[in-house]
């Protein structure tokens, strides 16, 4: 696998949009005018913190409890990771195409999976350490993880998406994110062991290499095929007694594939 050069400056994510100017006082004696209704956000105007705050409120109402995860989702501007034709759907709870048959996951799915990783670390009284992400895609989830983890290694097998993610992430100056072009099915042994591993694609089973690269006490969250042939979310914890698996809810992810294209 080829590791791309990381930016040599600190990480910085803008947590909010521009401030509106203060209203001017109405001269005495003039009739009161009704304020016009606010315009709906258009296109790249979706950089308002209020729009992301409403998304976060919906996530909290749906059951996401981690304040750190909610803050990370609220800080990362999802509309900057989708095509301009779809930008007005960026903060809806829906997956969107990003090209090459791949998608950006729903905000609720990203929040759910990342919260599962955080729960394991919180139980030990710490924050996320080194994380391996399988399937960089457009880079959105890596940007969220960058706010929660000490270090993020993210692997993408599709060269065009690897380049897109690099372009999307470059303005954010994430010095703790390592973008890798490679076969995610074999993980990334050079960065192991990992406190957490998360996959954005699902196969018939979880590759053994991922389990081998999981640190003691670490947690892996990935979609896989369940007993009924449908995709389910699988959590694997490396405990002192070995690997412990938990099968959670049904999910729908793109298929896990090998090779670099």
Automatic annotation (TrEMBL):
Region of interest (Disordered), ranges: 1-41
Keyword Transmembrane helix: no
Composition skew (Low complexity), residue ranges: 22-33
GO terms of biological process kind: methylation; protein repair
EC number(s) recorded for this UniProt protein: 2.1.1.77
Keyword terms: Cytoplasm, Methyltransferase, S-adenosyl-L-methionine, Transferase
Record GO terms (molecular function): protein-L-isoaspartate (D-aspartate) O-methyltransferase activity
Matching SUPFAM superfamilies: S-adenosyl-L-methionine-dependent methyltransferases
Record GO cellular component, one term: cytoplasm
Compartment annotation: Cytoplasm
NCBIfam families, sorted: pimt, PRK00312.1
Family classification: Belongs to the methyltransferase superfamily. L-isoaspartyl/D-aspartyl protein methyltransferase family.
Protein name per UniProt: Protein-L-isoaspartate O-methyltransferase
Organism (species): Paracidovorax wautersii
Taxonomic placement: Bacteria, Pseudomonadati, Pseudomonadota, Betaproteobacteria, Burkholderiales
């Amino acid at each position: 696998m080829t590791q791309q050069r990381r930016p040599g400056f600190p990480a910085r994510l803008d947590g909010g949009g521009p401030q509106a100017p203060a209203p001017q006082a109405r001269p005495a004696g003039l009739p009161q005018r009704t304020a016009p209704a606010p315009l709906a956000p258009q296109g790249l105007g979706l950089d308002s913190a209020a729009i992301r705050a409403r998304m976060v409120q919906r996530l909290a109402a749906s059951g996401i409890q981690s304040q750190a995860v909610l803050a990370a989702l609220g800080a990362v501007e999802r509309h900057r990771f989708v095509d301009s034709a779809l930008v007005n759907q960026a903060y809806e709870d829906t997956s969107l195409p990003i090209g090459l048959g791949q998608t950006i996951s729903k905000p609720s799915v990203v929040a759910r999976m990342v919260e599962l990783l955080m729960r394991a670390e919180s139980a030990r009284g710490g924050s996320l350490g080194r994380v391996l992400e399988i399937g960089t895609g457009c880079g959105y989830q890596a940007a969220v993880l960058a706010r929660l983890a000490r270090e993020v290694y993210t692997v993408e097998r599709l060269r065009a998406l690897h380049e897109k993610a690099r372009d999307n992430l470059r303005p954010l100056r994430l010095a703790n994110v390592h973008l890798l072009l490679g076969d995610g099915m074999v993980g990334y042994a050079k960065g192991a062991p990992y406190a957490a591993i998360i996959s954005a694609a699902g196969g018939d089973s979880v590759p053994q290499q991922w389990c081998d690269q999981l640190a003691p006490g670490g947690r892996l969250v990935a979609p896989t095929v369940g007993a009924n042939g449908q995709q389910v979310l699988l959590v694997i914890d490396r405990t002192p007694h070995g690997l412990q698996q938990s099968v959670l809810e049904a999910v729908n992810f793109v298929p896990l594939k090998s090779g670099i294209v």
